[in-house]
Design a protein that fits this description.
The structure is a homodimer. Helix content of chain A is about 30%, strand content about 30%. The first copy, chain A, contains six helices and ten strands; from the N terminus they run H-H-E-E-E-E-E-E-H-E-E-H-E-H-E-H. The interface between A and B is large, with 50 and 50 residues.
């Protein structure tokens, strides 16, 4: 437990993860791989990035004698923000991570409007904002900068992102063990490209 | 509900808040006042700062037919990070907020070591890191930069911070209604002073 920041172990998807066919990283979920990557970055003092706890609406709590408060009725809530944020080289980092078993397209249905709005607000404040999109079957993980996503979504008919669009407009993350998903390497490229656009 | 980001309404302290004597802001807790301040900053596109959800360790979930998953056994966990973070003018903002009913000193017992460590890591990455300390009885709210806290804690015998130390080394936040606690005004001063120290 000690190495896991509170609330960082995936709780809800464990059962479904176990029953799916495992490709790579010994069947770890995207969340687990990102948490381990963030741990790697943190212990090496490269960045401080955490997954936020899943928000829970607590309805009823029992206080048994001589033991910890026990929540006996609660419900999962929708997060109002993205799942991950933190600081890297002085930059504010903010991203959402999604995985699909689809082979050619990334469905946008599970990217709710309020998360897009949160990303827009963070980008306006000068944050480095992006999506991490994992194609489970191909073992490919893309980092899509929010600016590219926003352009793409300017056409309201778009319900998914093709892998070809991502190959052209997103950064492909290097996968390995140290770290599992080296997305900060792609953030470096993103920073370089946005700095050269500005100058 | 709509205006409240998920998990932002205080759940645990409501009963105790109601029984304490109320000074100012109609008895709102520090957390409520900060959440409203953050909402103010967000709607005016000044900053995007959120309180993180309280981490909960879920043990057992029921899935009733035709209704939402219901958590029937869960426990509160200690947060591994601070409670608040976000982005302001491109800066990564990270802080912890505490309130005391003590009149002369701020006890450090409820500032756990792992939170101090998290703040140190964020500061090393170039984040703007501080404590918000509220003296409930005096209705005074201080913003103590992490660098000052770190110097203070260099002496391991220190178990509390005197209000006199804070008057000298911290910034006093302006209190009002729009926003309730204008801590970003003090962040501006902090940024000015650290930029002039660097040049």
């Amino acid at each position: 437990m000690l190495n896991y920041p509170a609330g960082h172990r995936p709780i809800r998807n464990t059962a479904s993860e176990r029953t799916t066919v495992n490709y790579g990283s010994r069947g770890m979920s995207l969340e687990e791989r990102l948490n381990l990557s963030n741990e790697y970055y943190m212990t090496r003092q490269i960045a401080v990035i955490h997954k936020k706890p899943t928000p829970v609406q607590v309805v009823k709590v029992d206080y048994p004698k001589r033991s910890a408060a026990r929540i006996v009725e609660a419900y999962y809530r929708h997060a109002s923000t993205t799942d991950y944020n933190g600081v890297y080289k002085g930059y504010y980092i903010d991203f959402e991570a999604k995985e699909t078993t689809n082979k050619t397209r990334f469905p946008l249905a599970n990217l709710p409007q309020h998360q897009i709005e949160h990303m827009r607000q963070c980008a306006q404040q000068g944050g480095v904002v992006f999506l991490i999109l994992s194609f489970k079957v191909h073992q490919i993980v893309f980092l899509l900068p929010f600016s590219k996503l926003e352009n793409y979504l300017a056409n309201p008919n778009r319900k998914s992102i093709s892998i070809h669009f991502l190959e052209e407009h997103a950064y492909q993350c290097q996968l390995g063990l140290f770290p599992h998903i080296d997305y900060l390497k792609e953030v470096d490229k993103l920073l370089l490209s946005s700095n050269s656009e500005r100058s």
